[in-house]
């Protein structure tokens, strides 16, 4: 009888631990945003920025655009998708 009570106690403990509602699992990834203005592109020949973010975080890169030039941004060429992957590409027109 004691053996059955011990087994049931262990199973109850394991069940309780397994049902733990950890709110951290439901949070959105931390967002890191980098914006490069049209003035930056005009003034600087090369633009380099270093950013740090958490694992499973999100990086948003906002680049200047001027549709009157006829040029457009291309999709990124990412050599190691285990480090960084492009999940979304969206054109947002100028505000105004």
What percentage of amino acids are in beta strands? 5-15%
Q: Write down the secondary-structure element order.
A: HEHE
Strand order of the largest sheet: 1-2
* Chain-averaged pLDDT: 74
Q: Indicate how many domains the architecture comprises.
A: 1
Radius of gyration (CA) equals: 25 Å
Q: Estimate the global geometry from the Cα principal axes.
A: elongated
Model regions low in confidence, pLDDT < 50 over at least 5 residues: none
C-alpha termini separation: 77 Å
Largest sheet: 2 strands, parallel
Tally of alpha and pi helices:
2
Structural class: alpha+beta
Percent helix among the residues? Answer: 10-25%
Total beta strand runs: 2
Task: Write up what this structure looks like.
With 96 residues, this protein is α+β, with helices and mostly antiparallel strands. The protein has one domain. It is 24% helix and 12% strand. The chain is built from 2 helices and 2 strands, in the order αβαβ. It has helices spanning 2-18, 38-43; strands at residues 31-36, 58-63. A two-stranded parallel sheet has the order 1-2. Helix 2 (38-43) links the parallel strand 1 and strand 2. The longest helix is centred in the N-terminal third of the chain and has 17 residues, at 2-18. It is elongated. The N and C termini lie far apart (77 Å).
Write the layout of secondary structure elements.
Layout: H1 2-18, E1 31-36, H2 38-43, E2 58-63
Parallel strand pairs: 1-2
């Amino acid at each position: 009888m004691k053996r059955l009570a011990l087994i049931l106690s262990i199973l109850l403990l394991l069940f309780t631990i397994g049902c733990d509602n950890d709110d951290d699992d439901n949070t959105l990834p931390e967002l890191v945003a980098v914006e490069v203005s049209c003035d930056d592109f005009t003034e600087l020949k090369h633009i380099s920025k270093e950013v740090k973010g958490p694992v499973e975080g999100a990086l948003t890169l906002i680049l200047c655009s001027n549709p009157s030039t006829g040029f457009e941004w291309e999709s990124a060429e990412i050599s190691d998708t285990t480090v960084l992957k492009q999940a979304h590409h969206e054109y947002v027109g100028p505000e105004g």
